[in-house]
Design goal:
Strand content: 15-25%
Distance between the termini: 61 Å
Helix content: 40-55%
Number of strands: 3
Radius of gyration: 22 Å
Order of helices and strands: HEHEHEH
Length: 113
């Protein structure tokens, strides 16, 4: 009788194990991209940014996500956009477009981005 119970326990463990391993995998990291410009004006920069990440082994949508926030030359929007990235708990914030986006990112975080 004990042998049957042991076999049932092992079979249950084998069936449960893949689910527990899958549940423990960390979520995909997210890069927050904050810019004072518009996406159209920075098209070539975004292409180069993604290419550089790919060279380092990070592919958007595959093993990292990039969350773009564009102020479209409205600097007053930067603090709210930076705060939104912080609320979304991105792993890192890339501030592009000069010192104003960098200051907005720094003000929205508790550490220097």
């Amino acid at each position: 009788m004990r042998r049957r119970e042991f076999v049932k326990a092992i079979a249950g463990l084998v069936a449960w194990w893949p689910l527990s391993v899958r549940a423990q995998q960390p979520a995909m990291p997210v890069i927050g991209f904050l810019s004072s410009a518009s996406p159209k004006a920075y098209e070539h920069f975004v292409f180069a940014f993604k290419a550089g990440l790919a060279e380092a082994g990070y592919v958007d949508g595959k093993n990292v996500l990039i969350d773009f926030m564009w102020a479209e030359d409205r600097y007053d929007r930067l603090p709210a956009l930076a705060a939104e990235l912080v609320r979304r708990q991105v792993s890192v914030i890339v501030a592009s477009g000069g010192p104003v986006p960098a200051r907005a990112a720094k003000a929205a975080t508790s550490t220097i981005p």
